[in-house]
Specification:
alpha/beta, 343 residues, Rossmann fold, disordered C terminus
């Protein structure tokens, strides 16, 4: 077990949305830690709560969404309890985010240079000239070959890969302690993807920054992450070191994700698939939320919601298959789930 101090600790986070159909539990009791200098991968299908979790950490959840429970502890301070002005001092400074869609995240009416300089001047005591110099330096750092020209450009004049690099330049401009990357390589070609990932690895190596990378791409997870949490239907269903996760996935959902991913060393006429779809957050099934899609489902899975079990391997899994090898319960058992498998 690592003795490094956790930079971020999320405890039992609940983020709900009020809709006409009722309350949508997008994030429902999520807990995890990120240590200093660590890369945490967050993986799962669309709609599992990955992005809402990241927005909750950043303090960017807006009505009709609301954090209704839990804690987000950053360097000893619960971000859910501080004022909006205190939170804004951290956003883009100590905690930065690379958003999924750079074209919609960048202001189309302002030049790239203005948007980078604005973030630098907002958080650091520098004048406009110094901010411009640092902005151009950041554009160079993210691999943009014509930084002075791009500094004067508007977002729509740049390619998707260039806009993503600009987003990273903004995110890194104040040397954040925690970088949250929400699908940072979506819609980019593989060459640009590799460059973006190398850039984030370089940030970690140079500044000991922590990174939370959110993706559905297991290849990105294998390339970047030290540790991984797998999310399904608003909950963490598995947590493990990256090598352990790929070597011996414990949750049937994780196994399904692995089997549906192509591998270079295998020749298959078709990939496996997970039957069904992720349940709507407003209508979760009883018992285990994955049981309607799980080929290992038992009678207990239909009626009893499994807790997150800490296993002898050090992994955690929300599955009744592993109850006999549990070390301890990470969460209190609920709905009378104290019976063993088959009991």
């Amino acid at each position: 077990m690592s003795t490094r101090q956790a930079l971020l600790e999320v405890r039992d986070l609940k983020t709900y949305f009020k809709t006409e159909a009722g309350v949508t539990r997008s994030v429902d009791g999520v807990s995890f830690k990120i240590e200093r200098g660590e890369v945490l991968g967050v993986v799962g299908e669309s709609g599992c709560g990955k992005s809402v979790t990241s927005y909750s950490v950043m303090g960017l959840v807006e009505p009709p969404g609301k954090i209704v429970g839990g804690e987000v502890i950053f360097e000893g301070t619960d971000l859910t309890k501080i004022s909006e002005s205190e939170l804004k001092k951290l956003q883009g400074n100590a905690i930065s985010m690379i958003f999924q869609e750079p074209l919609t995240s960048l202001n189309p009416l302002l030049t790239v240079g203005f948007q980078i300089s604005e973030n630098i001047m907002l958080h650091q005591s520098v004048n406009k000239k110094t901010a411009k110099q640092r902005s151009i330096e950041m554009l160079k750092k993210v691999g943009i070959s014509r930084p002075e020209e791009v500094f004067r450009s508007f977002p729509h004049e740049l390619s998707g890969g260039m806009r993503q690099r600009v987003m990273i330049a903004i995110a890194l401009s104040c040397n954040p302690k925690l970088l949250i990357a929400d699908e940072p390589t979506t819609a980019l070609d593989v060459t640009i993807q590799a460059q973006i990932l190398r850039l984030m690895q370089q940030l970690r190596d140079e500044t000991n920054a922590s990174i939370m990378i959110i993706t559905h791409d297991l290849g990105v997870i294998a390339e970047m992450a030290d540790r991984v949490i797998v999310m399904y239907a608003g909950q963490v269903v598995e947590e493990a070191g990256v090598y352990e996760l790929f070597r011996d996935p414990k949750h049937p959902y994780t196994l399904g994700l692995m089997n549906s991913t192509p591998r270079l060393e295998e020749t298959r006429t078709e990939l496996d698939s997970i039957p069904g779809t992720v349940p709507a957050p407003s209508s979760m099934p009883d018992g285990c939320r994955f049981h309607p899609r799980c080929k290992f489902a038992m009678k207990q899975c239909v009626s009893d919601a499994p807790p997150l079990l800490e296993l002898k391997s050090g992994s955690k899994a929300r599955c009744w298959l592993h109850v006999e090898e549990e070390v301890s319960l990470v969460e209190d058992r609920k709905q009378g789930t104290s019976t063993a498998v088959g009991g």
